[in-house]
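Re: that backbone. Tokens:
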């Protein structure tokens, strides 16, 4: 599970204490509207697919996997992985360990919020990444960064988060 400063920071900035259900529903609706704005020709579909571009096998069930979205390419660790190059798999990545926090607070100037809302993902180690993404499902802790959906397994009450991941994983069923 990711350790999260996001919930604490955003609770303060959104004044969620005492009205959490109403604010949560407003935020969740806002995230869904934003996703429809970003991808106007598609419905919000968190089970869309990404391409397995390359697989370097370590054993029978683990590999170094290069994944490609419509916006970028990353290298992740594949555990319990059984796909091959050219396959399309579910766009749901997980983390072994990581941190996530609000990229900004609600009372910051709009120009700064807009500037800090640009998605990014940067490789910092073999399977380690840092970046910024949009929260697409607050309850499940799903964040989209450059076309990849990452599950932080944590409640996120923010619109945009900064993250650091020690190991980014992909699993296939």
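Recovered sequence:
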């Amino acid at each position: 599970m990711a350790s999260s400063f996001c919930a604490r920071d955003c609770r303060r900035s959104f004044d969620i204490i005492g009205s959490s259900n109403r604010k949560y529903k407003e935020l969740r609706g806002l995230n869904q509207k934003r996703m429809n704005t970003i991808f106007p020709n598609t419905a919000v579909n968190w089970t869309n697919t990404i391409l397995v571009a390359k697989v370097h096998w370590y054993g029978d069930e683990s590999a170094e996997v290069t994944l490609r979205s419509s916006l970028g390419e990353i290298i992740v660790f594949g555990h319990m992985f059984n796909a091959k190059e050219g396959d399309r798999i579910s766009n749901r990545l997980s983390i072994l360990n990581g941190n996530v926090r609000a990229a900004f607070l609600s009372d910051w100037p709009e120009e700064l919020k807009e500037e800090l809302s640009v998605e990014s993902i940067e490789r910092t180690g073999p399977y380690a990444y840092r970046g910024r993404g949009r929260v697409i499902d607050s309850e499940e802790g799903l964040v989209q960064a450059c076309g990849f959906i990452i599950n932080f397994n944590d409640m996120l009450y923010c619109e945009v988060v900064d993250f650091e991941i020690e190991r980014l994983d992909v699993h296939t069923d």
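The CA atoms of residues 142 and 151 lie 5 Å apart. The radius of gyration is 16 Å.
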